[in-house]
């Protein structure tokens, strides 16, 4: 391991983040923002020591290895950064990377690139081009920044320790990042390609937490003569059909119950009571439609569905593709995300004697909060 040190700045006050908690402590993918940076730095095995500069030590919930050191930060970002540099000076570091805890999405590949570039350069800054056009104002006049000649700087930024330390110690005014020190002193800075996903979490809406929900559905209907058989929204040629207030489509009914279950919205009977005349002989796709509307309205989306159709006859293999195509259409979901299995019951009981067909479904939904 080379003589590399990683300083994580997590002592900001988040003036722009509309929350009682400073943003570096907000949960993102089940971890506080600063924990993402610690874990990534540890996993990279590139650093002798990882320094977490933080003002509220109570936020540290886990025990880290000995090479993770926690120190108290200063008032401004540049104060905290200097405190980190002063702390590591006694270890005589060659290289130091400085990183804002508000960027949890950098990759270990980027860390490697930064450290490799330090062999030939004193200061390395990852940059990306702006996706939006930038204007700036001087007094009352507006100017356009040419997109091809402007870029956005990110962290981690990498430096030879001695050079950065000298500049930091003599800096009198507040600076936005360490690159500024080199640029303002007309020193050479090497820019490397940054990462589009390595954005800074500045506003509350920058954080999207996706939650996963499971739902289960089961249904069974008796088979009777002189009725058409509907499964998965389509007519299947068969000597009997399924008895029920509706068309008795066990697949769609199980799907409806599974989706309602995952959304925690009770069951099919709540939405379609079987004592209501208006639902008499209703086709099941018509029952599914309002349920999908609720799903969309509440920002859920389906990850996948797994279906067990339990019957001796008809054979699922013969109709699988047709049923999947129909379900894909009704759910507006890619066919690859739906699985349909046929299951017999060894000729046992009502289902075995072809007096009934049953179905069970598991659905997984996601919701972005
Ligand atoms: Zn049913």
The CATH homologous superfamily of the largest domain is named Spore Coat Polysaccharide Biosynthesis Protein SpsA, Chain A
CATH architecture of the largest domain: Alpha-Beta Complex
CATH class of the largest domain: Alpha Beta
Amount of helix: 25-40%
CATH fold node name of the largest domain: Spore Coat Polysaccharide Biosynthesis Protein SpsA, Chain A
Distance between the termini: 41 Å
Bound compounds, please?
A: zinc ion
How confident overall, as mean pLDDT?
A: 92
What does this structure look like?
- With 369 residues, the chain is of the alpha/beta class.
- It folds into two domains: 4-206, Spore Coat Polysaccharide Biosynthesis Protein SpsA, Chain A (Alpha-Beta Complex); 213-367, 2-C-methyl-D-erythritol 2,4-cyclodiphosphate synthase (60s Ribosomal Protein L30, Chain: A).
- Helices cover 28% and strands 30% of the residues.
- It has helices at 33-44, 77-88, 108-117, 161-170, 178-184, 250-263, 268-271, 284-297, 316-331, 349-352, and strands at 4-10, 27-28, 31-32, 49-54, 68-72, 95-100, 123-129, 134-138, 141-145, 151-153, 157-160, 190-193, 210-225, 229-231, 234-236, 240-242, 300-310, 338-343, 356-368.
- The strands form five sheets. Strands 1, 4, 5, 6, 7, 10, 11 and 12 form an eight-stranded mixed beta sheet that branches. A five-stranded mixed beta sheet has the order 16-13-19-17-18. A two-stranded antiparallel sheet has the order 2-3.
- Strand 2 and strand 3 (31-32) form a beta hairpin.
- Helix 6 packs parallel to helix 8.
- The protein is elongated.
- The mean pLDDT is 92.
- Bound molecules: zinc ion (ZN).
- Zinc ion is lined by residues 219, 221, 244, 248, 250, 253.
